[in-house]
Amino acid sequence: MNPNIEAEIAQIKSMVEENNKLLKKIHATGRWSMILGFVKWAVYIVLIVGSYALLQPYLTQMMDTYAGIQESAGALSDMKAQTQDINFDALKEYFK
């Protein structure tokens, strides 16, 4: 074989080996990126569910309080409707 061809083959072989190393690094980087992306989303989901579980008693208490306030406001408006019929002028005359 021609020595020039053997040198070219050796050069191509070293380039292929270097290319193979780079491709393996790229593949490993992609794999780690995918794994860490999954872990990141898993942490987000765990934090959201944990926050909801932690805050649920407080949220329930706030909703109950809000419902109580609405009930009281409804009772006040009913009381106002009932007092519309009262003649306060007659009461003033009665207590004079």
How would you characterize the overall build of this protein?
The protein is an all-alpha fold. It has one domain (3-95). It contains two helices and no strands.
Summarize the structure.
The protein is mainly α and 96 residues long. The protein has helices spanning 3-83, 88-95.
Mean pLDDT rating:
90
**Secondary structure: helix percent:** over 70%
Counted beta strands: 0
Rg, rounded, reads 40 Å
Unreliably modeled segments: none
Q: Structural class of the secondary structure composition?
A: mainly alpha
Please trace the helix and strand order, writing H or E for each element.
Answer: HH
CA-CA gap between termini: 134 Å
User: What's the tally of helices?
Assistant: 2
Number of domains: 1
Biggest sheet record: none
Strand content: under 5%
What overall geometry do the principal axes of the alpha carbons give?
Answer: rod-shaped
Key attributes of the depicted protein:
96 residues, mainly alpha
Q: Could you outline the blueprint of secondary structure elements for this entry?
A:
Elements: H1 3-83, H2 88-95
